[in-house]
Design goal:
Length: about 425
């Protein structure tokens, strides 16, 4: 083999070999990228906090606006929930599987009665283990000063040794088992002042018939202005002679074990002029009637929406004025290479700080309002899910309120801050 046949190592092969054999630099880990992201977020959050706290008066006004909005939403929606709970309280407290009434009835409180024969028809339906009569209507209660007050009489079936499907609950004084006695009634403590009653054992008249308070409950209120008075159905009929000899407003049904509630309900619905509802269906039907037919729901939710609008306007104005005040600083950040997303995070962070602090102030204010309204015999229901929904609404409201400021910064030309 001659010298010309020997392999020639070119310069290119040496360079390729050097780069191939050299150790490669390790790729940037995802953990370090996440760490930088968290650090950037903390810096944006710190900057947002400093911008908010720079003008303390404006910051206080923003928190006040959000807290008032939160309080209005919680109180108004809580009042609505409280009213709906009150409207269906008698239904929800029953142990019946089915409520049977006239098909033409629209309102639970103002239902038309039927006669005793209907009760026997319902009780003879296959699958009915037990049926009880309920009579509801309005009568006149004789006050201690000689005046009269309209009350809602609720007559239930009572029998010694048997727990009725509907009876007074939350009894705090007296003996509710005495309802089997003629003329015995049970009233709620919250109605003492209205009925001018000072003790258990108070004697009075209902529609000219003797009545004696034998027990006292707590928390049983009517959705109407008429106090609820429980009594035995036989006593109730003596208080309501205008309804006929043996009136019945509802028949409560306990379905026999092994029978399907839906099957028994269908059999009762097949009877002429009757409609059967499960306890849940009856409760929802009553709530829907008072919410939609009377406009109660629209009134409460309109006020709640107004509260959201108040918070939106206040937060939006505060954030926009702050953006205008620090417009040169935002422009400087963009001129130094800050991305629009970073600047947006600063503004949104200010909005979220306002939302969180406003909620922390507004929620206790709503609790205070609930306690004050309880003294005025008003129920404000504040379930945990309402707090969660209000917090989300507050955050969304503040985020939308920041849109005007975000648009202003996005349109900002960084070079404009250096112009004279």
């Amino acid at each position: 083999m001659t010298a010309y046949d020997a392999p020639v190592e070119t310069k290119r092969s040496k360079v390729t070999a050097r780069y191939r054999d050299s150790p490669r630099k390790p790729a940037k880990s995802h953990a370090s990228a996440r760490a930088r992201g968290v650090l950037l977020l903390r810096r944006m959050w710190t900057l947002a906090r400093k911008l908010l706290l720079h003008d303390r008066l404006r910051f206080i006004v923003a928190i006040a606006g959000v807290s008032v909005s939160v309080m209005l939403v919680l109180v108004q929606v809580g009042l609505y929930y409280g009213f709906m709970d009150t409207a269906s309280s008698i239904i929800d407290a029953s142990r019946a599987d089915l409520w049977v009434g006239k098909k033409s009835n629209e309102s639970f409180e103002f239902a038309s009665p039927f006669d005793e024969r209907t009760y026997y028809k319902v009780s003879s339906v296959p699958g009915v283990e037990r049926a009880e009569r309920v009579l509801m209507n309005f009568a006149q209660f004789k006050l201690a000063d000689g005046g009269d007050l309209g009350i809602q009489v609720v007559g239930v079936e009572t029998a010694p040794g048997q727990r009725p499907l509907l009876a007074p609950w939350n009894v705090i004084a007296g003996d509710p088992h005495r309802l089997t006695e003629p003329g015995a009634i049970v009233v709620d403590r919250s109605e003492y002042a209205k009925l001018k009653i000072d003790r258990v054992g108070h004697l009075t008249e209902v529609s000219g018939v003797r009545a004696e308070v034998v027990a006292l409950t707590s928390g049983i209120r009517s959705f109407t202005t008429s106090p609820i008075v429980f009594t035995d159905i036989r006593t109730a009929r003596s208080y309501l002679p205008q309804l006929g000899a043996e009136p019945v407003t509802y028949v409560l049904v306990k379905v026999a074990p092994g029978s399907a509630i839906s099957d028994v309900q269908a059999r009762i619905n097949a009877l002429p002029h009757l409609a059967a509802y499960t306890t849940k269906q009856m409760s929802m039907r009553t709530r829907t009637y008072w919410s939609s037919r009377t406009g109660v729901g629209a009134g409460f939710f309109t006020t709640a929406v107004l509260g959201i609008i108040v918070g939106f306007v206040v937060v939006g104005q505060i954030l926009y004025s702050g953006t205008l005040q620090y417009i040169r600083e935002y422009g400087t950040l963009k001129a130094m290479g800050a991305r629009n997303s970073a600047v947006i995070k600063v503004i949104l962070s200010q909005a979220m700080i306002s939302a969180a602090l406003g909620f922390m102030v507004g929620a206790p204010l709503a609790m205070g309002m609930r306690a004050a309204m309880k003294g005025a015999n008003l129920t404000v229901a504040l379930p945990p899910e309402l707090y969660g929904a209000t917090l989300v609404i507050t955050a969304v409201m503040c985020a939308f309120a920041a849109l005007l400021s975000i648009v202003k910064v996005l349109r900002l030309d960084p070079a404009s801050v250096f112009k004279a």
